Amino acid sequence: MLKMSKCIFISLLFFNSLWAASQISNLWTGYAYWSYDNSPMRCPLMKVKFSEDEGHFNREMGFLDCDMLGMELPPFSLNKNSKGELFSPQGVNVGLITSDSLEMEEAYDENVKIKVSMKSKGNSADYLETWYKNSSPKEIIYVIKARLFKGGSFEKLEN
Predict the structure, then answer these.
(1) 67 within domain boundaries
(2) 10 falls within a domain
């Protein structure tokens, strides 16, 4: 009986280790600074929710509330391979997700790109989003730096 339960336990460990969601997959709540022309504005609330499964990485929702100014982060879904590489629906490699970090680039439109970096440290994460013109040399439009924490709810602050 002991040998059988040991085999089942080892099998469960093996199959559970084949795929595990990264620490990035979560609802994150925190604060941010939105810098435009090197003038940072404090944003008391930023929320973003990421999820993933074996073949996809998703941003389910997100928003940034800077009192007088706000921004919605629209949902998107990327394809993901077994190495954590992220691909647009058109098959273009746009980033990488690991057990504790995210690096990706998305197109806002044909002239503007958004580079996102996120590094999880347990229950908190550092988030950096850089919007830049797709020109040579790259001209930064604005930068969002955030300190995020796991948890919260989907509701926004009501003014």
Answers:
(1) yes
(2) no
Question: 60 pairs with which residues across the strands?
Answer: none
pLDDT on residue 64: 94
Dihedral sign, Cα of residue 79, residue 96, residue 72, residue 61 = positive
Query: Is 36 within the bounds of a domain?
Result: yes
The total number of structural domains that make up the chain:
1
- What φ, ψ does residue 125 adopt, rounded to 5°? -150, 150
pLDDT per position as a tens digit, 69-121: 889 988 999 999 999 999 999 999 999 999 999 999 999 999 999 999 999 99
Residues 118, 126 contacting (CB under 8 angstroms)? yes
Range of 113's domain? 21-150
Examine residue 139 and state whether it is found in any structural domain, yes or no.
yes
Indicate the residue type of 93: N
Strands 112-121 and 56-66: unpaired
Question: What pTM value is reported for the model?
Answer: 0.81
